[in-house]
Design brief:
This protein is α+β, with helices and mostly antiparallel strands. Helices cover 37% and strands 37% of the residues. The protein has helices at residues 2-9, 25-35, 40-48, 55-72, and strands at residues 13-21, 80-98, 104-120.
């Protein structure tokens, strides 16, 4: 699996992964769709002023991807854009809540994973 990362990263790309984000993939997908295809600085501004709670964590992941591009792959930060944002399902915690007449209600607490790939725009 590490070899695949190297192959991807050799071609003007850098990525950052964030696992076990305590939000459902559906809610995280809304935030991911908002930044997909934007330049890196515009995506950071978009996440800064987004009112969703998970936007802070996505912003931290995007900043990590930008730092990886700058430090590990020697890419120009001014030319970076968000090429891919992948959202996946993580583990699901299942809890029980007592209900009337000896029954139980199911509580589902989902987790998500997000991968952000930034790429340098070709001239």
């Amino acid at each position: 699996m590490a070899q695949k990362k190297r192959v991807i990263n050799e071609s003007q790309q850098a990525l950052a992964k964030l696992t076990s984000v305590r939000v459902s993939p559906r809610k995280l997908g809304i935030v991911a769709q908002a930044i997909r295809g934007l330049s890196a600085d515009k995506a950071l501004v978009q996440l800064e002023f987004m009112r969703r709670r998970v936007a802070k964590e996505v912003k931290a992941c995007l900043m990590s991807a930008i730092a990886n591009a700058e430090n590990n792959h020697n890419l120009n930060v001014d030319d970076l854009y968000v090429s891919k944002v992948l959202v996946g399902k993580g583990l699901v915690m299942k809890r029980m809540r007592a209900r009337a007449r000896g029954r139980s209600g199911k509580i589902i607490k989902p987790f998500s994973n997000i991968t952000i790939v930034v790429e340098e725009r070709g001239e």
